[in-house]
Specification:
The protein is mainly alpha-helical. Among the domains are: 129 residues, Tetratricopeptide repeat domain (Serine Threonine Protein Phosphatase 5, Tetratricopeptide repeat); 107 residues, Tetratricopeptide repeat domain (Serine Threonine Protein Phosphatase 5, Tetratricopeptide repeat); 88 residues. It is built from 40 helices and two strands. Strands 1-2 form a two-stranded antiparallel sheet. α18 runs antiparallel to α19. The protein is elongated. The two termini are 43 Å apart. 40% of the residues are buried.
Length: 738
């Protein structure tokens, strides 16, 4: 089982963006008080404040304290209050505030002094909150409210009711600034009391106070953080609108974001259209969010149309838009288009966009181009992270270049990027698939020494490697060790065993293991069926392979493109090319997008038959579907054209594969050189031969003999001897001589 590479999706970054944008917009330090309004003149009045009346004795003390505070304002409050401490009672605090409430600095000093002695009452807190908002210091009010919800063992529901009651009670005489309820609303949202915030919103309407649109946006944004919350956003949007909230661009953006998270992208698109009809201008975020939504559901053309539309409006796509489109194009295999978008958008890509494209290229097998992007990141001071390196390591492992993967792993560690379980498991899996079990277990031990715990994926990779080596008994021992550590066998672990048995030709035993899986309550998946189908296809039993496909469909298990590729390969191996073409046509009709491997199987067999006309038609059909050829595609076509002596076409494809960063195989190089030699184009043959040598690849013995003879007859003795030494060093023997 391959280790999953997590690439952050656009919605992840969009949520972070909303959070950042929300804080900027609703900052209590930059609130626009002009946005506050009352809903109607017929609203009920706020209650009059009527605290307990002081006695004559209390009045005298309060008067002395007030006089001392005012006259000695430059002195520390502790010194001023020292003579009164023994007689000071909680009620005195509010009575003193009545006299000094218009001198904000004195109020704060007095409140600080009280805080050092005892906790102020809820009423006193609300009074200070009212005064601070009236003095345009909502930051203090915000902090005091938050303090009340940070207290342990407090019933939030009861506290909310008491707090709201005291805030309303103290409003009229202590501040009369309606923004105090906005601050309270914001705090309720921030601490997660969304029902309380909604109740406050409705309660304030009774008093004619409408919570600001910025605070309501905070409420919508908080809801949109979860899928369940997203479902209520449209309802709140409509309800609050009826109560007088004039939603702004940010409001609509949150609405669009919520609908996209729920997969209702077309509804989100309709909201985007309605914005301007309702007098609210859309911005880059409105478009980027909708574009991201279309990308998430795979509607590439709709996304590109929106990008064009936003550019026509003079709105610049942002980095998240770029990442969304690149991610989608990579996902559907349109790597050429992904690179085109990557290069043509007037944006500086960040590490996320680079990583997305690197991962896409690696999954398509173009690791050379992916590695060039890593080098480009370094040259542009874009720092790659663990995800970037893991994607590349996975790509190298997938193409069998485990030594290069290990070098990259070492480079990553040297840059102080600590590998995690996924990175270790990825390279362990690569070693296992390359048959280098000893190195895989060495890395496993290193992983443990680093304090990382191998998980079921790590063990499955090791089991898979052992099974591929035919060491089924050792694999079973490892499974026992795995179970002893409390790890449960999953479908991936069983699939590794099934795959191992099939590789050994033990199809009967593999089928029995699948039956045992089902008894244990672990049901076969697409990979299980595909593995068995592959075994039957390679055994030439297409009837049983087709029967397994029928079973999959009956059980509601969706076949993957790999499943169909297995069938396609089976048909082609048996020479059933018409059946293969019918399968391809059926896939396209059913909307099942084939990949390069699907077409490669057909092209390979037509090349074997030397039918390059049919091969070319299939290749054109592949390009017509917007699919990018991979290294194997070029290998098949070059060898086929060389066999048919179409050297012009073969050399053109050789140039194209080089430009795209793919590596030509040794067999393709040999075919190309021999094709030129057969056509008496010795200079072209020599150039390709030297290109092959520069890449460290060794041609076969026949070609070494040809170029040694050619150089000898041309009088180039030094190069002749060099080629002779090279052939001996690489143990290359011309099979025609043996």
């Amino acid at each position: 089982m391959r280790a999953a590479i997590f690439l952050p999706t656009y919605s992840t970054f969009q949520s972070l963006y909303y959070h950042h944008h929300r804080l900027q917009t609703i900052s209590i330090l930059s609130f626009d008080f002009s946005k506050l309004r009352f809903s109607s003149a017929s609203a009920r009045h706020f209650p009059d404040y009527s605290p307990k009346k002081p006695t004559i004795k209390d009045s005298e003390l309060v008067n002395k304290i007030c006089t001392a505070i005012k006259q000695r304002r430059v002195e520390p409050i502790q010194r001023i209050m020292k003579p009164f401490e023994s007689r000071f009672k909680p009620d005195h605090f509010i009575w003193v505030l009545m006299d000094i409430k218009n001198e904000y600095k004195l109020v704060l000093n007095f409140f600080d002094w009280l805080g050092l002695r005892r906790d102020a009452s809820l009423e006193a807190h609300c009074i200070i909150i009212q005064i601070s908002v009236a003095a345009k210091d909502p930051k203090l009010a915000h902090g005091l409210m938050h303090d009340y919800w940070s207290k342990p063992n407090v019933d939030s529901g009861i506290l909310f009711a008491l707090f709201m009651e005291k805030l309303i009670y103290t409003y009229k005489d202590w501040g009369s600034n309606p923004y105090v309820f906005d601050v309270f609303f914001q705090v309720l949202v921030e601490v997660g009391l969304l029902d309380g915030a909604k109740h406050l919103f409705r309660k304030m309407l009774n008093y004619g106070v409408v919570i600001s649109v910025d605070s309501c946006n905070l409420f919508l944004s908080k809801l949109s953080e979860s899928i369940d919350g997203c479902k209520t956003v449209p309802h709140i949007f409509t309800e609050f609108s009826k109560e007088g909230i004039n939603w702004n661009t940010m409001s609509y953006n949150i609405m669009i974001h919520s609908l996209c998270r729920m997969g209702k992208v077309k509804e989100a698109h309709n909201i985007l259209i309605q914005m301007e009809l309702r007098g609210c201008m859309s911005d880059a975020i409105s478009y980027s969010t909708t574009i991201s939504g279309y990308c998430q559901i795979g509607e590439y053309h709709a996304a590109l149309r929106l990008i064009e539309e936003m550019q026509n409006k003079g709105l610049k796509p942002n980095i998240y838009t770029l990442n969304s489109v690149v991610f989608l194009l990579c996902k559907i295999g349109k790597l050429v288009d992904a690179e085109k978008v990557f290069r043509e958008m007037i944006l500086t890509p960040d590490k996320v966009v680079y990583t997305t494209l690197i991962d896409g290229l690696c999954k398509a097998g173009n690791v050379t181009a992916a590695y060039r992007l890593l080098e480009e990141m370094h040259s542009k001071n874009v720092v790659p992270d663990l995800v970037t390196y893991t994607a590349l390591i996975s790509g190298f492992c997938r193409t069998g270049k485990t030594s290069e993967a290990h070098k990259l792993f070492v480079e990553m560690c040297s840059r102080k990027i600590e590998p995690d379980e996924v990175a270790y498991t990825t390279i362990i899996d690569g070693y296992c698939k390359d048959g280098r079990i000893k190195e895989a277990f060495s890395l496993h031990n290193q992983m443990v020494q680093m304090g990382l715990t191998p998980n079921v994926v790590t063990y499955t990779a090791l089991v898979d490697g052992l099974c591929k080596q035919g060491e089924i008994d050792t694999a079973n021992e490892l499974l026992k060790e795995m179970c002893a550590k409390g790890l449960e066998l999953n479908i991936c672990t069983y699939n590794s065993l099934v795959n191992g048995l099939c590789k050994l030709g033990n199809i009967v035993q593999a089928v029995k293991l699948v039956e045992d899986m089902e008894v244990a309550g672990i049901y076969p998946d697409t990979f299980t069926y595909t593995t068995l189908m592959d075994a039957y296809c390679k055994a030439g039993d297409m009837v049983k392979a087709y029967e397994l496909l029928r079973q999959m469909l009956n059980k509601g298990i969706r076949p993957s493109v790999v499943t169909f590729n297995v069938l396609m390969n089976g048909f082609c191996m048996l020479g059933m090319l018409e059946d293969g073409k019918r399968l391809l046509k059926w896939m396209l009709e059913k909307g099942i997008m084939p990949n390069a491997t699907t077409y490669n199987s057909l092209m390979k067999q037509y090349c074997v038959r030397n039918d390059m006309h049919a091969t070319t038609e299939i290749y054109k059909g592949m390009l017509g579907e917007g699919l990018s050829p991979n290294a194997n595609t070029y290998d098949i076509l070059i060898r086929g054209h060389c066999k048919a002596r179409n050297m012009k076409e073969a050399y053109f494809l050789h140039k194209e594969i080089t430009e795209k960063g793919y590596d030509l195989s040794v067999k393709a190089y040999n075919a190309l050189i021999k094709g030129f030699i057969r056509r008496k184009k010795h200079l072209e043959a020599k150039n390709v031969f030297e290109e092959m040598r520069k890449k460290g690849l060794a041609a076969d013995g026949e070609l070494y003999n040809f170029f040694m003879d050619m150089n000898y007859h041309e009088g180039n003795l030094d190069l002749t001897l060099e080629l002779c030494d090279e052939a001996i060093e690489k143990n290359i023997v011309d099979k025609t001589d043996t």
